[in-house]
Hints:
Largest sheet: 10 strands, mixed
Oligomer: single chain
Number of strands: 14
Order of helices and strands: HEHHEEEEHEEEEEEEHEEH
Strand order of the largest sheet: 1-2-3-4-7-10-11-12-14-13
Structural class: alpha/beta
Number of helices: 6
Amino acid sequence: SVEECKKANLHHKRGITKLELRWTDDLEWENIAGDGHGKEVVEHLLPSIMLEDLRILCYGGLKLPSWISKPSFYKLKSITLFKCENCRLLPSLGRLPSLEFLTLIEFIQVKIIDMHFYVETAHSDHVAFPKLQKLEIKSLLSLEEWRETRKVRYFPCLTKLVIKDCPQLTTICRLSGIHCLECLEINNCGKLPSLPEGGLPSSMKTLVIDDCPMLSLSCSSSLEKSQDWHKSEHTSSLLIYQRNEGKRRESASVTN
């Protein structure tokens, strides 16, 4: 109940640096939300600004609590959001100043990733996800588009991006401007026809494509013609490309 959450007083418990909020099943969420106060209950689970690691699992609400987007969580480094099956939008997390690791799993209602994911209100001087190093997007079964946004800069420190089990996905955002990206893994995205316009950044070392027949065909015809890349592993469904180190250094020096 709201009263129980108020008594828990998580906001003032500065010794809590790791927090997991877990609902065991849909029935438990219905018991919380049945009186119409489900969202209010979760809003009152506001943790301390000293939080470093947050996990929310099996959340049944339509929208995650507003506090999850607050830049006042200046020490928050890792977020895992799992099985938030009723949420239609990903939360806006781009203003968290210290976030390094973000994992999003089973947001099965989400169809589009757009500017809201980066910032709620865009300004030209915004840099979204300024410290993020690793982003994993998995089992977004309805996701169709990861839209390009030119209103904010994003992912200046991202080194690894994993997109897995998004069978309806047809477009992903431009990657060429993510200048620290070293590893891209795309798995079971059967409708993704090609890499985004602009290609891959010069920082890239490894590209893994698994169970993506259209994308595999596209990459085979483009990357294998390039002297920058070589195929290090090849099975019926799996392709792994490695950038030739000399070419990578050469590209980086030209870029710089």
